[in-house]
Amino acid sequence: MITLIPGQSSLSSPMSYRRSQDFYISSMIQFNCDGSLSTTKKWTIKNCTSTSCSFAIVLNEKVMTTFSELYIPSRTLDYGVYQLTLTVTMIDSPNLKASSSVYVRITATGITANLVQLGTSMITRGDQQDLLLDPGTFSVDPDENTFDAT
């Protein structure tokens, strides 16, 4: 039996994470057998539509998919809904396997508006100083490496 934590989700009601957030999915694996308990673990991630999850995606090498815990760094997944499935297979009996899935929605993070470089806390009071407010240049999009103000 595989229990995923957090695990209360479905395709119609996925857990929500911002694209700028890292997140973990942990598992508790319980065995009901007398044989060897050696197993292989494999996480798969599928992109979902409103009705099904059929397209497996390939992750970059920094995401380790062969452990009982799955760590997804920020900005790894694009916006959308995903099915994350852990499959545990007995090494001595490859026909014996179990799977469990959770669903996550990746949402946009709000833009951080900076009117001046390094934020408005850098503004000091003084006489005859020009202050250039340029949020298009100094704002930040936490979901991307660069900010496009257009």
Task: Describe what is shown at a glance.
The protein contains one helix and eight strands.
Write up what this structure looks like.
The protein has 150 residues and is mainly beta. It contains 1 helix and 8 strands; from the N terminus they run ββββββββα. A 5-stranded mixed β-sheet has the order 2-8-7-4-5, with no helix packed on it. A 3-stranded antiparallel β-sheet has the order 1-3-6, with no helix packed on it. A hairpin with a 6-residue loop joins strand 7 and strand 8. It is elongated and about 80 Å long. This is PKD/REJ-like domain-containing protein. Keywords: Membrane, Repeat, Transmembrane, Transmembrane helix. Its main location: membrane. GO terms for molecular function: monoatomic cation channel activity.
User: What structural category do the secondary elements indicate?
Assistant: mainly beta
What is the H-and-E element order? EEEEEEEEH
Q: Please estimate the helix content.
A: under 10%
* Second rung of CATH, namely the architecture of the largest domain: Sandwich
C-alpha termini separation: 50 Å
CATH superfamily of the largest domain: Immunoglobulins
| Annotation, overall tally of beta strands | 8
Rg: 22 Å
What topology, given as strand order, has the largest sheet? 2-8-7-4-5
CATH first level of the largest domain: which class? Mainly Beta
Low-confidence stretches: none
Describe the largest sheet: 5 strands, mixed
Summed up, the domain count is: 2
What shape does the CA trace take?
elongated
The averaged pLDDT comes out at 87
In terms of DSSP E residues, the strand content is 35-45%
- Which topology of the largest domain does CATH recognise? Immunoglobulin-like
Give the count of helical stretches: 1
